[in-house]
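assembly run, all chains below
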Amino acid sequence: MNGFRSTLIEKPELNDLNNWPMHVDTATMSSKNRAKFIRNVEIIKYFQQGVSVKKTAMTHNVSPSMVYYLLNRALGTYDGEPPALYKGLIPNLIQHEKQRQSPMPTLADGRGSVFAFKALLKKYPDIEVELQAKIKASYRGTATSENLTPNILHKTFLSLLIQFGVPKDHYPYTTQSLAYQSVRRYFHDYLSELRCPESRPWRESISKRSDMAFEEIQIDEQHFDCETAIEFEIFGRRTLVRVKRFWIVMATDCSTGCILAFHFSINLRCSQWDIMNVLKQIHYPKPKLTIQTPSLSYPEGPNLNDLKAWLPRVQIGVISLDNDMAHFGNNCIQYAHDQQACLHYGHPENPNAREQIERLFLMINTVTHRHRSTTGSHSHDPIKESKRLKKKPPKVNVQTLLEMMSIQIAEYNQKPQARLGGICPVEKLKELIQHQYYCMRPPQAPQSQLVKDPKLRKLHFSKTKKQHPWVNFYGVRYTVMDWSKSVNTTTTVSIEFDPQDIRKIKAYLPNGDFIAELIVPRMWRRYAHGIVTRKRIIKTTKNLLFASGDAFTEYFTILQKNFHKPSVQLEMVRLGFENSQSRELVLDMVKTDDLSEVGFSSNSYEQSANYISSQIRMPWEQVKIS
Amino acid sequence: MTKNKLLEVMTDKSVDFLRHPVCHHTPLSFRRKTNYYEQIMLKHPLPSPFHSLAEYLHGGLLEADPSVQSYVPQPYQFKINGKRYIPDVFVIRGNQKIVMEIKPEAQTPFHYEQYLEPFLHKYQIRFEVITNESILAQEQKAVNWLKIVQVLVAANKSRIRTTQLQDEIMSKLLMSDEAIELGDFIDSGDRQRTYATEVAVFRLAHAGLISLALEQSDLGFDTVLSL
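ok done. output:
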């Protein structure tokens, strides 16, 4: 060890306390240690001011050797390490691993046995190897190992002493317990070392520190930790039912923490269409919900709709997802490729890789956990709904919960954050887009609801009958309404469609030329329906369609028969929300006499009730959801 | 050609396939188990699968290297000692054809090298092992180039023409004695107006006609351009 004087010769600047880096937090010390630490600092300060050691010691009521001791602790170096400085002034802090200085005790020379066990293991390293192997085997539960206790290990230790020829007059034979306590401590220390998880080499990633908008967007979904209620009115009979938990899908920008998009998926499982919905919202944020619950309102302040003109220009860098099957949907992948974004599916069971989005779900849980009908975060969570309350539908309505969530997300985006320098995520995003460099997309065509089908379809021409050419799309034959560019032979076409309403699709040649709009058969034109609804109707009513010729009625009849099932109730809610937006079906090319049959345009239950009642056996419009 | 008992080509046995491979499809089960990246690149203008961060960054470095004409990630499937093996990338650099395997330094030397090297040598293809560490040391450069690739792929898709702008940029760089930054070509207040110029700069850099200082810092307005 080099003393403080040699350090001061090498680094004379350390003779001034102001040049010492302060990295000791006195707040975490006990009051007794803090007082001693401050005294030690004062002693060093006196010494550095040129006051003699004797006078310094007298002033602080310590011995002169204590002053030298402190100077050596703070400024002395050990094995080429830098001086401890302030750390050396912390009372009772062990700076270096202690070792036995004096020779090992013997029966003739009965010295104390301080650090004698450690010295023994150092002198006979094979003993330590054997002990460690025995403890490791016991910890791993190998077939040849035994259930080890300190007592058993001590016996092994004694036999090892004989095996490796430790003299009988040396330590541990000089002690009465034959180093039992040292073996016991060694056993527990090594066991806890084995139990400790191995620290993986951590590499600082450059990309995480970047300050560029949309460089990484994380997307994930989670079940709401809350069950809700909804009231159905079927044929005038009102029924209040408990609705099962459904999903929220969110997308967040990693540079700002801003929630760019969210979607409520009222389904048993999240599908690729929910992910698609969120992906589309990244560039085109959806408008705010119309708040129906009294006393709820959106906070005033900046929101993503203010950046509507800017967001479509920003190129997405990486879209981070987990390895859920919904994320591998062809439509999601196709959409990401159309945006030239990189898709990143991380390692399985590693949510920490997407910690930003996972942390946001904690924020969502603060709302859902407030309700009595919460399920809690896990099956043993004490806040979960009691069995007594579970017998009745909860008080919170589906619509209210969705509105609360929407407001909570808006509030989060407007809340100033310390890590963003005291500004809110939306403001930060605005700042990054308006003042910092971002990768830019080419000028975009106006926003379109249409998405491109990743699969190429065949445009069929009948060789025997005189009929319009057609394309099979999601189990239904779509016929050509009007040619934009006439095609006369069977060819492959790519399809564009609106996932929310697939009554009408557009066909393009592989070279990108638009050829025609195609329309669904009449029985499917009545309601705007998405792909999920189409698939479910076809799957459920496969054998019944020919009988009635009305897929929607058949499907509703089946739903009504199974209305007691929670999954069916959830499906009814989903259908209700799907139909809540009025979508026009424009049929320019349909003949005028057909219009009376298929041309009604609204999907709202109330508006078309009179018309429908004469058309279908089970009036769909007799269902109301509130 | 694949009589060697220890090594056989599983996908296609023609010589042409070895010299001009196509990207091997990554099964869904494997995509779900690995740190999977997928992006459309410029020198492999199809969805390119990368099975680790190092492979993805290596893709960015290949894009940055003007001597690399094209590359194919996950090119072939071999069967070595009864086990399936897919090399990481096939690169065409000048007249050379190289099959590369990316491994952590701790896993080198690569144990299949003894089979692959003599086999590929017969078809004038070199086999190389690159360490993850050597790629990660150039992470900043690779990340920046991957961003440029995204911009250029989008521009190519939108058929943005920049031939005239590229000539103007080159002449400006030739005339200038001082260092020119990317911000000198881009109007930060109206990015849309100078979008084509931005693409032109990136196209020149990608072709190796100019160089961008992207090794140490993020791509930005202050990125220095040089000839």
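The longest strand of chain A covers residues 451-460.

Residues 31-48 of chain A form the longest helix (18 residues).

not gonna interpret more than that til we talk
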